[in-house]
Amino acid sequence: MMLVAALPVLEAVAKGKSAAAKAAVENRCGWFVNPSPANAWLIDRDGEWIIATQGGEQAEGDWPPPIAEKQWVSYGGGSYGHGCACMRVLTDRKTMQVKRIVSSAGKTLAQCRRDPKLAEPRD
User: Fold this and answer.
1) Rounded CA separation 46/33 (Å)
2) Which InterPro entries match (predicted)?
3) Which domain range does residue 29 map to?
4) What letter would DSSP give residue 10?
5) What is the pLDDT of residues 6-54, one digit of tens each?
6) Residue 96 domain flag
7) Which terminus of the chain has fewer CB atoms gathered within 10 Å of its CB, N or C?
């Protein structure tokens, strides 16, 4: 009887998959920073999560749009800058990389500014 229960685990291991459950989607909120083309990260209470690096890895999924133009701090008058966002993501905790963005939403700047654990990025 015990052997029958272990078969799915053995099959997963044989296929090179972890016996652990699928990676869990995490909800992360903080500063979404996009300072230049193809570079982006999210700074939350746990640190700085890399979303994209120019010429490097890019997370799958859509980046969060600001909820309004006044909720985006522009760098040098262009479209690059930072805002506040919440994202449902799959991550690699060892490398602090976002692998996939399941969903994302812009939030008010005030939401991030109220959090004492989040320092606002500088341009």
Assistant:
1) 15
2) DUF4087
3) 24-113
4) H
5) 444 444 444 544 434 467 999 999 999 999 999 999 999 999 999 999 9
6) yes
7) N
Q: Are the C-beta atoms of residues 106 and 66 closer than 8 Å to each other?
A: yes
Report if residue 97 sits inside a domain. yes
Give dist(CA 81, CA 89) in Å, integer: 21
Q: What is the pLDDT of residue 74?
A: 93
Question: What span, in angstroms and rounded, lies between the C-alpha atoms of 33 and 86?
Answer: 12
Domain tally for the chain? 1
Decide if pLDDT at 61 tops 80. yes
Q: Quick check: helix, strand or coil at residue 121?
A: coil
17 C-beta neighbours (distance < 10 Å), count: 11
Judged by DSSP in three states, 65 sits in coil
Q: Answer yes or no: is 120 within a domain.
A: no
For residue 118, the tally of other CB atoms under 10 A from its CB is 17
Classify 2 as helix, strand or coil: helix
- Residue-wise pLDDT for 65-88, tens only, equals 888 989 999 997 778 999 999 999
